[in-house]
Amino acid sequence: MSQVELNGQSFTLDRFPVGVEEASLQAWDAADEYLLQQVNEVDGPVLIFNDSFGALACALASHRPVSVNDSYIAELATQHNLRINDLDETAVTLQDSLHPLPANPALVLIKMPKQLALLEQQLRALRKVVTPNTRIIAGAKARDVHNSTLALFEKILGPTTTTLAWKKARLINCTFNAPALEESSVLASWKLDGTNWTIHNHANVFSRSGLDIGARFFLQHLPENVEGEMVDLGCGNGVIGLKLLAQNPNSRVLFADESAMAVASARLNVEANLPQAVERSEFMINNSLSGVEPDRFDAIVCNPPFHQQSAITDHIAWQMFNDARFCLKYGGELRIVGNRHLDYFRKLKRVFGNCETLATNNKFVVLKAVKVRKKC
Questions:
Q1: DSSP bridge partners of 46
Q2: Which of 147, 244, 318, 347 is the most exposed place for a label (fewest CB within 10 A)?
């Protein structure tokens, strides 16, 4: 938790939601400060994109902005930071990137997302609602502003310029003039080898252009013939959960992810490839398995992420492992795949009291831990 002055006001900001601490990382950056320097009088709706921890939303809460994000964790952080600064939580409208945008915004502030595909999806959505009078300003680390980035703004919205760097951050200013633009699907699709499935991916889904090598290895080592409830935790496009549904015909599968686009992709992939299994499927946008009842699931499978936004961290894996143990039935198992160097074996043994290596290759390992009663 740190103090910062933004837009002439002093705020206390947390990097993560309540219950997850990472004191070495702060909840804002120079791009946030640089963007807010450009805000003076605003007469009309304000849109904020990709505000990771609510720094922009807190500073502009008096304008009652709409904050657009694909991250449920970012929403939790924004709500938390509004609350600890005694700001009205209802002053900021939180919505995901697949929801229609309000028309005729006066000001649009964009924190540049890591995925260029997500930026394109958001710019195409903006094109439908902005006017030539809308101020459109994007901010990022200077190293992340490329010619391809500027070209994307020019192609979709109109004339674009960039500023000089300030504290290693740079701004992009864009004026909408409705350039001619061909329609293009924001969905990416590819065939899954060895199946007749077509996997569909919204813009912000991990490995949206093809099956990542960790998932490819994991698909060979999933639970079979389980009866009961299972979870594809951190489901992404849902390809792991699809395989669970296919080889466990008497089970139900919960697809859970903190990305709205991931959960929407997983739902689409079940509907398109295993329509007969839709009634055995549940879809949840959540921070890991927060709030889910204990002792519910027979098996949980997971390919844990080791980064949040641009920060490399293992706190997400720790939370997933602890949530999994809480939500598993006694005798139920957590099965994961991970890079060998991440030492998940030690982490799982600490959480579960046991861990078994099921498979390994030169880069990945598949591990299994079973929920047993801990010895007193």
A1: 107
A2: 147
The pLDDT of residue 306 is 60
User: According to DSSP H, which parts of 239-314 are helical?
Assistant: 239-247, 260-273
DSSP letters for 126-178: HHTT--TT-EEEEEEEGGG--HHHHHHHHHHT--EEEPPPBTTEEEEEE----
CB 189 within 8 A of CB 199: yes
DSSP state at residue 259:
B
Supply angle C-alpha 189, 190, 195, rounded to 5.
130
Distances (CA, A) of 355 to 87, 228, 300, 375: 45, 22, 14, 16
* Cα 266-270-271 angle, rounded to 5 deg: 115
Cα–Cα distances (Å) from 177 to 134, 153, 172, 184, in that order, read 10, 11, 16, 19
Cα separation, 33 vs 109, whole angstroms = 12
Return the half-sphere exposure (C-beta side, CA atoms, 13 A cut-off) of residue 206.
21
pLDDT reported for residue 18: 43
With a CB cutoff of 8 Å and minimum separation 6, the contacts of 284 are 254, 255, 256, 257, 263
Q: Nearest CA to 181 among 99, 120, 96?
A: 120
Q: What is the pLDDT of residues 91-123, one digit of tens each?
A: 999 999 999 999 999 999 999 999 999 999 999
Q: Longest C-alpha distance within the chain, in Å?
A: 70
pLDDT, residue 185, reads 81
What backbone torsions phi and psi does residue 90 show, to the nearest 5 degrees?
-80, -5
Query: Closest Cα to residue 192, out of 172, 176, 177, 212?
Result: 212
Q: To which H or E segment does residue 325 belong?
A: helix 315-327
Helix axes 315-327, 344-352, angle to 10 degrees: 40
In this structure, what token pair is assigned to residue 288?
């890991």
Tokens of 273: 């490839």
Written as one string, the DSSP assignment of 360-375 is E-SSEEEEEEE--PPP
The two three-digit tokens of residue 213, written as one number: 């090598």
Give the helix/strand (H/E) hosting 251: strand 251-257
Q: For the CA atoms of the chain, what is the radius of gyration?
A: 22
User: Cβ distance 221 to 359 under 8 Å?
Assistant: yes
